[in-house]
Specification:
With about 350 residues, the chain is an alpha/beta fold. The protein has a single domain, classed as P-loop containing nucleotide triphosphate hydrolases (Rossmann fold), CATH 3.40.50. Helix content is about 55%, strand content about 10%. It has 16 helices and five strands. It has helices spanning about 5-15, 30-40, 55-65, 90-100, 110-130, 145-155, 170-185, 190-200, 215-240, 250-255, 255-270, 275-285, 290-295, 300, 320-330, 330-335; strands at about 45-50, 70-75, 135-140, 160-165, 245-250. It has a five-stranded parallel beta sheet, with helices on both faces. The protein starts with a helix and ends in a 9-residue tail after the last helix.
Length: about 350
């Protein structure tokens, strides 16, 4: 094979995802003995916060870690954004190394799941140890991987606790749209740029549904992705994590933050502490660092939308938006008790 042909083959492999670049056998599960070893070397309780993007995962992370026993940081994306944690062992060369018979450290087994778990454990426990916290977690939202993120998480952390936060998909769409306008405006297409220009020059024309913030394609994509994510993640989490799975709604967190946090901390095994933390919880609820950062980025738009509030969609959806979202999301709004029927 000539050098030129090798280069061309490599380029084709990269662009097409050639299976020959990936490991030949699936990553095995951790054994009971492996899990016992991890509990001995990395004794802190682990949890993961998942949620569709723009569903309040950041607020939840900020609130959860107010507890003196709990640390949570964000965006490790071990299981929620490619290339993913498992990419560390996803090649024939690494697989051969970790399964090599002459490698006496592997005791005749594939070390891949041990390597993956050890990497994630060290990353989380290092910061928790510095802070003196005995419970540690990561929050990483996802909008595309859905149920596979839960399966990958359970494969490496079958003993972890999983928290899933759900938000009304119509408010998710509004939040995603404004994030597009503020943070990703240079990537907008022609029709999207036209909507943004109208919004900047005449924001009041978008109130009450006179104009739509969305192209039909964009709203359909967000609505379908939201409904798919909720259905797959919740189903797989209940199947795999069972009692180690807790789900909550963003709107309930806004309405009753102390009650919801008591429930979460109890689920994580933290000692009751909500009374002494009530003032700090309220102060954290009143702050909005993400919203302040977006306001600095998009000053013209910041006064138009109160970021993080429930029900923003009601004043911004028009009839076409309602029809598109209803058709794309199926019965998800009813299932999660955001609506009683399809006639909303």
């Amino acid at each position: 094979m000539t050098l030129k042909s090798r280069i061309l083959a490599a380029a084709r492999a990269v662009s097409s995802g050639d299976a020959r670049l990936h490991r030949k056998t699936p990553i095995p599960a951790l054994s009971r003995a492996d899990l016992d070893d991890f509990h001995r070397f990395f004794p802190r309780t682990k949890f993961f916060i998942l949620g569709h993007a723009r569903s309040g995962t950041t607020l939840l992370m900020r609130l959860v870690r107010l507890h003196p026993e709990v640390h949570c940081d964000y965006q490790a994306h071990f299981f929620t954004r490619r290339p993913l944690l498992k990419s560390l062992v996803d090649s024939p060369a690494v697989e051969e190394w970790l399964t090599r018979k002459s490698n006496r450290w592997n005791h005749g087994k594939d070390l891949s799941p041990v390597v993956l778990r050890a990497a994630a454990e060290f990353i989380m426990e290092r910061d928790a140890a510095r802070l003196g916290k005995r419970i540690v977690g990561d929050k990483s939202p996802s909008s595309t991987i859905h149920g596979q993120s839960v399966r990958d998480l359970h494969h490496i952390f079958p003993d972890a606790r999983l928290i899933y936060i759900v938000r009304d998909g119509r408010d998710v769409a509004i939040s995603e749209r404004f994030r597009n306008f503020v943070e990703d405006s240079r990537f907008l297409g022609r029709r999207d740029r036209g909507i943004l220009e109208r919004l900047r020059h005449d924001p009041e024309s978008f109130v009450g549904g006179r104009n739509s913030l969305f192209t039909e394609e964009m709203l359909e994509r967000v609505a379908h992705g939201w409904a798919t994510d909720l259905a797959e993640v919740d189903s797989e989490a209940r199947r795999l994590f069972r009692r180690n799975y807790l789900v909550l709604r963003y709107e309930d967190l806004l309405e009753q933050p102390v009650r919801e946090l008591e429930r979460i901390w109890r689920f994580l095994g933290a000692k009751p502490n909500s009374r002494s933390l009530a003032a700090r919880i309220r102060a954290e609820m009143d702050s909005n660092p993400d919203g302040e950062w977006q306001a600095r980025r998009g000053q013209q738009l910041s006064s138009f939308l109160t970021k993080g509030r429930a029900g923003n969609w009601q004043s911004l959806f028009n009839e076409r938006d309602r029809d598109v979202f209803r058709a794309a999301s199926g019965d998800a709004l009813q299932r999660w008790k955001y609506e009683r029927s399809v006639n909303w």
